[in-house]
Write a structure and sequence with these properties.
6 helices; five-stranded mixed β-barrel; OB fold (Dihydrolipoamide Acetyltransferase, E2P); alpha+beta; 214 residues; de novo design (two linked rop proteins)
């Protein structure tokens, strides 16, 4: 018999499978990114179905058996998607795509879990948010975006761009939530190049968001 453990999680993405099951990709505080199957949750009388949707923070009990994971119980503690405006929903979608692309499976990343909570909270409470500060902070925590300004990457950056990165590096990183357009146009491609070195998975949500908000 497999063991069952409880995890604090954020549902990053779900896929319906079979007649009533749901395949969930979770960011857990304790073990990082996990993929688990919730059986029967799409049945009308299921108690778990409403707690396993994208952008929900959920306490899950996961059973591990023979190398596979299944969700035996789930209780939503916060629904980030409930009150999101379209623009903020699109920014949150980009954040989850970054996490899906860059994080390794079953590797604890408690700082990134907390960062994701902060960003999704901001999406709920701020009129406008931007994915760039989250991206910079995420890449810094993954150790692929340099923090030291002596690094050669900074040699081509303007003082305004350096200051924006400094703000993103501080605890009050939300102060950089809305970058000026010129900074966005220069730093976003830089972050994209760094990400392309870490993953072969193409990022689709950014162009979709841009097209929908035009």
């Amino acid at each position: 018999m497999g063991r069952s453990l409880q995890y604090q999680s954020i549902v990053l993405r779900t896929h319906d499978v079979g007649e009533a099951d749901r395949f969930c990709i979770l960011l857990t505080k304790e073990r990082g990114k996990l993929a688990a199957r919730a059986r029967g949750v799409r049945k009308p009388k299921s108690r778990m179905g409403g707690s396993l949707l994208d952008f929900q923070e959920t306490m899950v009990c996961i059973r591990e058996s023979r190398g596979s994971l299944s969700i035996s119980s789930a209780s939503c503690t916060k629904d980030y998607c409930e009150t999101l405006a379209l623009s903020n929903f699109l920014q949150a979608s980009q954040a989850t795509e970054l996490l899906l692309s860059l994080l390794e499976d079953d590797h604890p990343v408690p700082d990134i879990f907390a960062l994701t909570q902060e960003f999704l909270d901001g999406c709920m409470t701020h009129d406008q948010v931007h994915i760039l500060p989250f991206t910079i902070r995420l890449l810094q925590q993954l150790g692929v975006f340099p923090r030291q300004e002596s690094h050669e990457l900074f040699s081509t950056l303007s003082e305004d761009e350096r200051q924006f990165i400094r703000t993103c590096s501080q605890d009050q990183w939300w102060m950089a939530a809305l970058p000026p357009q010129d900074i966005d146009e220069r730093l976003t491609p830089l972050c994209r190049r760094i990400m392309e070195e870490q993953t072969n998975r193409p990022l689709r949500s950014g162009p979709i968001a841009d097209a929908m908000l035009q």
